[in-house]
Amino acid sequence: MKILVTGGLGFIGSHTVVELQNEGFEVVVVDNLSNSSLDVLDGIEAITDKRPIFEEFDLREKPKVESFFQKYQDIAGVIHFAASKAVGESVEKPLLYYENNLGVLVYILQELKKKQRANFIFSSSCTVYGQADQMPITEESPVKPAESPYGNTKQVGEEIIKDSCKVNPQLKAIALRYFNPIGAHASGKIGELPIGVPQNLVPFITQTGMGLREQLSVFGDDYPTEDGTCIRDYIHVVDLAKAHVAALQRLLKDKNEANYEVFNLGTGKGSSVLEVIRSFERVSGQKLNYKIVDRRPGDVVQAYADTTKANKVLGWKAISTLDEAMESAWEWEKNVRTR
Ligand SMILES: NC(=O)c1ccc[n+]([C@@H]2O[C@H](COP(=O)([O-])OP(=O)(O)OC[C@H]3O[C@@H](n4cnc5c(N)ncnc54)[C@H](O)[C@@H]3O)[C@@H](O)[C@H]2O)c1
Q1: Which pLDDT belongs to residue 312?
Q2: What DSSP state is assigned to residue 310?
Q3: 34 lines ligand 1 (CB under 6 A)
Q4: Nearest Cα to 72, choosing from 22, 14, 112?
Q5: Distance 6 CA to ligand 1 centre (A)
Q6: Which of 267, 272, 271 shows the shortest CA–CA distance to 306?
Q7: What 3 state SS string does 90-156 have?
Q8: CB burial of residue 186 (10 Å; 0-12, 13-18, 19+)
Q9: Helix (H) or strand (E) holding 264
């Protein structure tokens, strides 16, 4: 079966392409390389012995999206990763984010509307919960007003899909709300490669470990948590990738209970920033240069998932530990810098 993976050369997309190919799916990747590179295709091929079909274009170009679906009429499912994801940049350039994250989504759904039957998986985020009132966070926790245009694109994106599912019974969709994806493939051949200064904690840590960054800033140690630093649910990207295959199988096998479903994807365990640093120090055998600085506006104190629904309904569970994820991130960083 042929599956379209948009943004399939990015961090989460590339790991998902590997898992899809491992399960025998034929993958077509669309990516404009705005936050990735062609080398990723070599990495995927080296791991799976198979090169996915690759179409390089910008999904914001509606006519190209139309021609793509004309060319590949046998697409059985779409996993839509392509988006812009830097929270800070989204505040500076809101229209870029609305165009790329919502305009593109609409174009794809318009094409899927033309089909007899369509299966669609959407990359959402735990950011939709904001600072949830209760931990762990279930799918029933209320969606809070978005703190950034990026966060808003995930909330509105979910609404757009939900509304489309209401009127198009042939469209079946699942929104996956990721917690904090980290790590890299065990082969060390694909991983996270942020362009410029990393926005996320783990690549910043590994780059600091390599000496590419002088020092990590920890934003606040006076939060109401055990060690005073913020708590997140860090999930190994390979576990996350496997959840996409489980979600896709659910749709392809008509096992979904509603046309539109939502799942949290996390480990169910929260780790503080200092715990992540300690984990890095354990697996790398070196001390990390960091300092505590003031809190950063917009950071929630803690967010970790109740994963019961995904565990029971998708039959999927995150299995990797924080140390395993950190070790893979560190191996990847070392590989990238020495190749
Ligand atoms: N990484 C995270 O922490 C995280 C957390 C929650 C949700 N998400 C969501 O998951 C998805 C994937 O995230 P990621 O971390 O793999 O990001 P990424 O930037 O590594 O991957 C996105 C890919 O999409 C491509 N792309 C972007 N706009 C495009 C366009 N207009 N046309 C074609 N290709 C385009 C980029 O070149 C890149 O390869 C995104 O939707 C993101 O918002 C990520």
Answers
A1: 98
A2: I
A3: yes
A4: 112
A5: 9
A6: 267
A7: HHHCHHHHHHHHHHHHHHHHHHHHCCCCEEEEEEEEHHHHCCCCCCCECCCCCCCCCCCHHHHHHHH
A8: middle
A9: strand 260-265
- Read off the pLDDT of residues 223-245 as tens digits, 9 standing for 90 and up: 999 999 999 999 999 999 999 99
Give the Cα separation of 264 and 128 in Å (integer).
11
β partners of residue 214: none
Query: Would residue 150 show up in a list of annotated catalytic residues for this protein?
Result: yes
- For the record, the structure tokens of 198 come out as 């990393």
**268-294 pLDDT, tens per residue?**
999 999 999 999 999 999 999 999 999
211-221 tens-digit pLDDT:
999 999 999 99
Mean pLDDT of the chain: 97
Could you tell me the end-to-end alpha-carbon distance of the chain, in angstroms, rounded to an integer? 35
pLDDT in tens, 175-207: 999 999 999 999 999 999 878 889 899 999 999
Q: Which residues pair with 261 in a beta bridge?
A: 174
| Ligand 1 proximity of 280 Cβ (cutoff 6 Å) | no
Give me ligand 1 centre to Cα 220, in Å: 28
Pick the catalytic residue: 150, 223, 260, 304?
A: 150
- Give yes or no for residue 319 having a pLDDT over 80: yes
Residues contacting 56, CB < 8 A, separation 6+: 30, 31, 32, 33
31 CB less than 6 Å from ligand 1? Answer: yes
Q: Tokens at residue 308, please? A: 């019961």
- 53 Cβ below 6 A of ligand 1: no
